[in-house]
Amino acid sequence: MPVAFNTWTALLNNFVVERAAFTGIEIGILQSLREVPGFLAFTTVFVLLVLKEQTFAVIALAIMGLGVAMTGFFPTVYGLYFTTVLMSFGFHYFEAVKQSLALQWLSKEEAPQILGKLISVAAITSLIIYGSLWVFLEVFELDYLWNFLIAGVICIGLAIVMWMAFPHFPSATQQHRHIVLRKRYWLYYALTFFSGARRQIFMVFAAFLMVEKFGYSAAQVTLLFLVNYAFNWLFAERIGIAIRSANSQLNA
Predict the structure, then answer these.
(1) Cα angle, residue 182 at apex, residues 180 and 186 outer, rounded to 5°
(2) CA triplet 238, 239, 242: central angle to 5 degrees?
(3) Which of 117, 133, 140, 141 stands 20 to 30 A from 185 (CA)?
(4) What is the pLDDT of residues 78-116, one digit of tens each?
(5) Is the dihedral of CA 180, 31, 206, 222 positive or negative?
(6) What are phi and psi of 122, to 5 degrees?
(7) What is the pTM of this model?
């Protein structure tokens, strides 16, 4: 997921400004459309009536890779809307299933640390991706089309490898096949809401502002993401350990 999605995130703003002449209006519409699959992610419970979660996760990864790989071939407003929605369907469905699978396969005691470690793995992958992107853009001056295509094809290829090389891992937890809403989870719902708002403000429009108003190049935007993920790589697992320790003290 970081291979495809982080490449798309790092290059998108420069690509839409330089190749499709996007303004704040078009990027706002694009990002709004990107969130439609996120809103529809609750339909995962219906898909799971037909597919196993592990199978669905691999298919979602391949769809996301396809959307990213196609992005460079459609440098138009409507073309970018289409590839963004396609990529977003794969991304949001994968994220929904990934979290579910992780919580099924991990005990409550080990979940905080292991989830933190998974974030660190994703972060170090992102460091490699952003570093490679910087080299491709700054040293080899590789066109956007090829950067998108390489990342998307790698994502699709890894999805095929996971489909063929890994067995189906059984789950000890019987999954619900309906939507569950509980009053006692209100804080989690509120935090998720504000997390989404934070992302839209800082990750979406702040990055677009730096490109449109301050003329940041794709390589410079990539360096900013590189610094952010270096922090995640260094501290995510430690934060998970701290959370586990705090929960142990509260339970004691």
Answers:
(1) 125
(2) 90
(3) 117
(4) 999 999 999 999 999 998 888 778 777 777 777 777 887
(5) positive
(6) -65, -35
(7) 0.83
